[in-house]
Amino acid sequence: MCPPNSDSCGCGSARMPRVVIAKVGLDGHDRGARLVANTLRESGMAVVYTGLRRTIDQVVDAVVAHRADYVGLSLLAGDHMVQVPKVIAALRQRGAARTRVVVGGIIAKQQVPELMAQGVRQVFLPGTPLAAVQQFIHDDFQRHPIEESSP
Ligand code: B12
User: What's the pTM value of the predicted model, to 2 decimals?
Assistant: First the structure.
């Protein structure tokens, strides 16, 4: 586990991941997104939270501006099978395919394989301990680092 506020935690990663946590569409549930954002920030990651009701373009703008390694989508309105592929396509279109997509919220277990097949790195269902989210991103970034020069 990384100590808070370190550029590198000494676990082998060259740097800490940069993360955008985003809410797209009309979904007004923001507790999970805020908790995840705070947890990742407290672990030392550089985290931007977009706020509620963002368009996909606004989310991708934040990803590009922040040079995010991960974008975390919080989806509790039942529109995840529509929004997630649109975000992935928009990232590719804007040259941000390096950014890994993780998703959390009210998602049926049966839909997880389809989301993963579309390119989602991990799906987190309700009840996931916040520490498990932090651990996943930390471990994934350590095992598969993203070079600063990647497109
Ligand atoms: C609190 C709540 C509300 C609050 C929201 C307050 C707020 N500011 O967030 C209020 C009262 C406003 C509300 C309103 C509505 N709600 Co509501 N709400 C809930 C409730 C009870 C809890 C959600 C919550 O906060 N959970 C706590 C957080 C911490 O958990 P979480 O968000 O799931 O996050 C965890 C994981 O999912 C994951 N995660 C989530 N996001 C992310 C993001 C990333 C990047 C990662 C890695 C992980 C991750 O990690 C978190 C930690 O485990 C749920 C029922 C439920 N049991 O989930 C219904 C629920 C989400 N609501 C529902 C509905 C229908 C509504 C309304 C449409 C009701 C209405 N007719 O008005 C409105 C819609 C409002 C809107 N504009 O969107 C439905 C959604 C159904 C669906 N998607 O199919 C639910 C599931 C209730 C139900 N069983 O029907 N709601």
Answer: 0.95
